[in-house]
Amino acid sequence: MSAQVKAAIQARSEIQLPVSNTFILTSVLAALFLNGLPWEGIWLMLRPDFVAVVLLYWCMHKPWRLGVGISWSVGIIADVADASLFGQHALAYTLLAFGGVVLNNRMQMFNLRQQTIQVFGILALTYAVYALVHWQVNGYVVWLYFLGCLTSTLLWPPLCIMFQAMRQKRVDRE
Amino acid sequence: MDSTQSFRFFNRGPSSVVRLVFFAALSLLLLFVDARYRYLESTRSALSILVTPIQRLATVPGALWQMAGDLYITQSRQHSLIAENDELNRRHQLDAAQLLQYQTMQSENQQLRNLAALPLRNEFTAQLVEITYAERDVFKRRVLVNKGENTSIRIGQVVMDDIGIVGQVTRVYPWLSEVTLITEKDHAVPVQVLRNGTRAIVFGAGDTSQLSLRYMPVSSDVQIDDILVTSGIDGIYPPGIPVAKVITVERDPAYPFAHIVCLPLAGVDKNRHLLILSEMPKLPERPLEQSASGDAEKRAKTRRKN
Known about the structure:
Chain A is mainly alpha-helical. Chain A is 78% helix and 0% strand. In chain A, helix 4 packs parallel to helix 6 (88-102) and helix 6 packs antiparallel against helix 8 (112-138). The two termini of chain A are 31 Å apart. The model of chain A has no long low-confidence stretch (mean pLDDT 82). Among the domains of chain B are: 41-72; 83-109; 127-277, Beta Barrel (Thrombin, subunit H). Chain B has six helices and twelve strands. Chain B has helices spanning 8-11, 14-36, 41-71, 75-116, 119-123, 287-305, and strands at 126-134, 142-145, 158-160, 165-172, 177-181, 188-193, 199-204, 211-213, 227-230, 242-250, 259-264, 273-277.
């Protein structure tokens, strides 16, 4: 058995740890909170989309718990919070969730670095859809907006490790 | 372990594609409706109830940061505060001096006003009214104003604006009163020429916003640009209020009277707010004319009896 497969199996067993609905809900609310902090100027451009990353995490690890539908609902809430058009975040998050669900199994065969590259693709698609809608409606695109895609991707590994650790701790306690 | 895990297989594949298509289509529909028609504002405000607590919470760290910053006032900040305080003090003194000046000027102004105001003008009080309706008949120069019997307005009271005479109350309703403008056909105002005191009567022309000075002899001393003010002679109009200005004087010896046209000084057709003056103190009746008219009445009565 090669080391990679072993690692994959280990990852799988870790990923299939139980997770409470409260934990998922709390993480999404925390992400909304972090998105709502008063970011300004270049920091707003550099701000990772916490909500997108958290949703993607859950879509990849627990697709039967948090799937396309819930992502869409969270997107609607994000639309209200950001005062963007109704459906703008929702559309982006729907595609994001679909990407997460489709790559669910495949992702678990990769290590974190390889995952991150794939995540970058999904996030780039999400950002592109959001920007496309903005361009269609308002007629211009702020290219610096795509910086957030990079920071979101950079957020992925620490977030993965953190969530994994938190779930592990929960299991140990039980 | 999750109990739902065994159903994982069924939850993937076509199902999530269907969901993707459904939710993406829904999003696009919402986008279209929101961008084009803005129908969803009520939904937005309803959903914002969910979002507001999170947003409120998100402002807390910033506020805390500011409070912490206020708490630890550094040395340089203290210096800037002292400087600011000095600056404010200085400005306060300057402003206080100016305020004092202003107050003295105000009292001085009041005094001058008291001195300059015509004593006659202080004798009557006025009610401010607003024009409610304008007369729809083009041949009548009348307006309806928003006060009537409820504020004890009487027929015959004089209506003016800030410049001069506008008209007279001719009808009083419970909540409205009708004002006939001085430009109404044959509406008469007793006037004096301000320059030399010549008495005259100015009549409304009716069809235009002009006035005419009738029954003035060709030789009478009226010039263009003469100002006509009320004479106060028959006790209806208070004396000394501007009425009109002479614009043309035609002296044709073929006619006994000069043809004199005036324009009203007050904004007869312009203003929205008018003043209704309280009634003038009654003058003692003219004894001769009264008895004469009384006789005429008696005569008429007796005629009717017969």
